[in-house]
Structures are given as structure tokens and as C-alpha cells.
Specification:
Largest sheet: 5 strands, antiparallel
Order of helices and strands: HHHHEEEEEEEEE
Keywords: DNA-binding
Protein name: Helix-turn-helix domain-containing protein
Number of strands: 9
GO molecular function: DNA binding; DNA-binding transcription factor activity
Shape: elongated
Oligomer: single chain
Strand content: 25-35%
Helix content: 10-25%
Radius of gyration: 22 Å
Number of helices: 4
Amino acid sequence: MTQNQLANAAGLSPRAIRELEAGRSNPALATMVAVVDSLGLTLDELVEVARSEPPQPDVTRAADLGDGVTPLVRTLQDPRMASRIVTPSDPAASIPHPANPVFYHVLKGSVSVDVDGETIKLRRGDSLHIDAGVEGAWRPDGGDSQVLVVEAVRTNGAASQD
């Protein structure tokens, strides 16, 4: 439910909902009843969620990175992007582009990226965005390479894996 939809359902302004979500308002009980009714909740359920443990940061330590794919976000519900660090163990590996839009950023080494028949060389610090449906793959240019891959997530919440 969007903020505007909730505002309409609860008979409140979109600004009032934004202020509530941001914790910048002290709403009246009648306002909270309207909100929980619109969400199909009870006040008890809302209080229980408010008293629950706050989400913890999702830290990935450099020491945890090894060969292969290391997902960077493991705790978000319904993420819109999937991010991971790819460290190819095979210097001759060719990794196809995912079907979704993707952003590559070279963290270490260099890679060659094939984009619709053209090869683009990326070095440490270089980035590249590729739209959905672009044919091709990327591969390390010998030695150790490490690439941050950020991919748009499909509508079902799934992203392809390198």
C-alpha cells in the first residue's frame, strides 16, 4: 500500500502519513485507530511491532569475501535490487549478463565486457550500466578481479545469479 493509498483509506493527508512514518509526529489515538483499521491491524499488533527488536545492520566483512559470489544484502524484505561481489575463481570464466538491467563496478583488477558484439575493457574504478536484454558476458582479464554487480530485481522478487 502506498502512502497516498493509506492516506485516502484512513481519511488523512499524505503529509500526515509521511510524518507518521518518519516519526516526526505525535498522533492522536483516533488517528492511529484510523491507520490500523485501514491496514487491517489492531492497536495491539501495532504496539507489538513497535516493541520488537529494531532491524540490525547487514554487514559483509572483507574477510568473508572469497572466490565466487558474495551476496551483499541478505536481510531486506522485497528488495528492488540485488547486489553482490563476484570474484571469479577461473580467470578464463565468462559470466553472461543477467536478463535484468545491471550495473557493474570493477573493485579489483580489470575485466572485458561484451555488449552486443562490442568489447569494452573496464579497469579498477570503472563502471558500466547495461539495460535488460543486452546480449553478452563479462570475464576477468587475467589475475585477480572483483566486480560489484547490482541488478534490478524482477517483479517476483528474484534476480538471476552470476
